[in-house]
Specification:
The protein is an alpha/beta fold. The protein folds into two domains: 300 residues, 3-Layer(aba) Sandwich (Rossmann fold); 35 residues, no CATH class. It is 32% helix and 22% strand. The strands form five sheets. Strands 9-7-6-11-12-15 form a six-stranded mixed beta sheet, with helices on both faces. α8 links the parallel β11 and β12. α7 runs parallel beside α8. The longest helix is centred in the C-terminal third of the chain and has 24 residues. The chain is elongated and about 80 Å long. The protein starts with a strand and ends in an 11-residue tail after the last helix.
Length: 357
């Protein structure tokens, strides 16, 4: 009989952390610690988000800079030769009988929106931390960077439907704070508020209590689709939008809404994955646990390992193709990576000093 091996660490397990005082204590492996996210303020200075400093690179060619800050309507004035026909103010033209053009002025700051995926597949990891913990850390870095550059911060944190068996009827139990929407605001307080929501989202408690995160057999609407619809309502033209997810269960409606966001805003896809999702470990039998159940993973079949890796490569290629087609940046970050360095490289920034341990 094959000998059971336990070479991959840490083993997969559920969160057993408890919260203390106003902070939610975590080990930063399976549950994020709010103080850890606050501490990323210093590292975020190595991640400048000025639109002039960031480029996208596809097929070896650098594209143009981010679309830039949004433009606000200022006034309508009589048409002048050389005015863009697309800026015609047809309502004023019809009312006055004379051609008028819209005049716009640049917004003083650029909204930065973070879309953070806390759905159930994100609570998985075999290297350093869960994907959900990595997503929270990346979001915190971007939140602090936004504050450092004086831009407004907003976004949406969403999860699988959360069910509390003690909370009344089945209908009233679904979607308990599973979507947290934050309107763009400016300053350190905005970053701290966003970080608090990242660390204290009820999905973390659902990993340790009777509150359950589940995906109904026939959901009324795909949660990614629903949250992207909400993000559309929050965003304004010229926004800089970061999507932090593993991009599982993205249906065509979700991609359609994503395309609509990209028409007037800059969108960056940050794809989170775990090494075990990309490649099976060497031949052997491995114990995998979610804290309640234990399964044996048999990887002796070379063909199975190859097919597994090929499926992952195909999924990644499809994600990159969709991103390129929509003119969006695509960054892939593993739970085993130095995530600050990976972000710097993915955004085309000059590498800074290494992040502290």
């Amino acid at each position: 009989m094959p000998v059971e091996t336990h070479t991959r660490k840490p083993p997969l397990h559920s969160n057993t952390a408890s919260h203390i005082a106003d902070d939610f204590a975590g080990d930063d492996i399976i549950r994020i610690n709010q103080s850890t996210l606050i501490g990323l303020n210093r590292d975020a200075r190595q991640l400048p988000l000025q639109s002039s400093s960031i480029r996208a690179q596809f097929n070896g060619q650098y594209l143009s800079t981010f679309k830039g800050r949004g433009m606000e309507f200022d006034e309508a004035r009589p048409y002048q030769p050389g005015d863009d026909i697309r800026a015609m103010d047809w309502k004023v033209t019809a009312r006055t009988g004379k051609a008028h053009s819209k005049v716009f002025r640049e917004e003083r700051e650029r909204p930065v929106l973070l879309w953070v995926d806390y759905r159930q597949p994100m609570f998985f990891g075999t290297q350093q931390h869960f994907k959900s913990v990595l997503a929270a850390k990346i979001a915190a870095l971007l939140a602090w960077s936004t504050a450092h550059h004086g831009d407004r911060l907003g976004g949406l944190i969403f999860s699988s439907p959360i069910v509390d068996p003690a909370a009344g009827s089945a209908d009233s139990r679904e979607n308990i704070a599973s979507h947290i929407e934050l309107r763009p605001s400016r300053g350190k307080s905005a970053s701290l508020h966003f970080i608090k929501q990242l660390a204290q989202h009820p999905i973390w408690d659902s990993q340790t209590s009777n509150i359950q995160a589940n995906t109904p057999a026939a959901p009324r609407e795909n949660s990614a689709t629903q949250s992207l619809g909400r993000l559309q309502r929050v965003s304004k033209p010229g926004s800089l939008i970061f999507l932090i997810s593993d991009f599982r269960n993205m249906n065509e409606m979700a991609w359609s809404r994503l395309a609509q966001l990209g028409r007037h805003s800059d969108v960056v896809l940050i794809s989170i994955y775990d090494p075990l999702e990309s490649q099976l470990p060497p031949a052997g039998i491995y114990k995998i646990s979610d804290g309640e159940r234990e399964l044996n993973l048999n990887t002796y079949s070379k063909q199975q390992r190859q097919q597994y890796h090929q499926r992952y490569e195909m999924q990644q290629a499809q994600l990159q193709h969709r991103s390129r087609k929509l003119g969006m940046r695509y960054i892939s970050i593993s739970t085993a990576d130095d995530y600050l360095k990976a972000l710097q490289q993915g955004l085309g920034l000059v590498a800074g000093t290494k992040r502290r341990k």
